[in-house]
Write a structure and sequence with these properties.
Length: about 150
């Protein structure tokens, strides 16, 4: 059994990005990023799960699909192969859009549609940021609907 630190450096040498290793260590330990930093020298919980996750990543599977989890605007979302992984660029677009909408429409109560909602990350994030808006999420893929549900 290895410590979080030992595993981090072992897989870093294999060329895995730091962000991927940190994400996997956080998931298998049940830690936030801060908690992982505070417990970096402790034995890794679920060592076998971590190693399997790294193997899957090295075979080309995105780490978010390995753990069925992705973050969007600091909120966790369930994801699987039926939906796209939310991107940081989309986070920036949502934040910028909300700012522009606020500038143009002020405090008006608006109706917003999230078409092809996938994981629901965009629509749910807008709904949480603007609780007075009416948000519609639309998806035609039944498997994707189950993810967003």
């Amino acid at each position: 059994m290895s410590t979080n630190r030992e595993l981090f450096f072992r897989y870093q040498k294999e060329g895995i990005p730091n962000s991927v290793i940190f994400f996997a260590l956080e998931q298998v330990n049940g830690f936030t990023h801060t908690q992982l930093a505070m417990n970096f020298d402790l034995k890794t919980k679920n060592y076998a799960t971590f190693c399997r996750a790294m193997e899957r990543y090295l075979k080309g599977e995105m780490i978010e699909y390995v753990f069925n989890k992705s973050y969007f605007l600091n909120r966790p979302f369930y994801i699987d192969k039926h939906v796209l992984i939310p991107r940081q660029e989309t986070e920036q677009l949502v934040v910028l859009s909300l700012e522009k909408i606020k500038q143009k429409f002020g405090d008006k109560k608006l109706k917003v549609a999230d078409i092809c909602t996938g994981s629901g990350a965009i629509g749910i994030s807008v709904a949480l940021a603007q609780t007075d808006y009416i948000i519609y999420l639309s998806e035609i893929d039944h498997k994707a609907i189950k993810v967003a549900d």
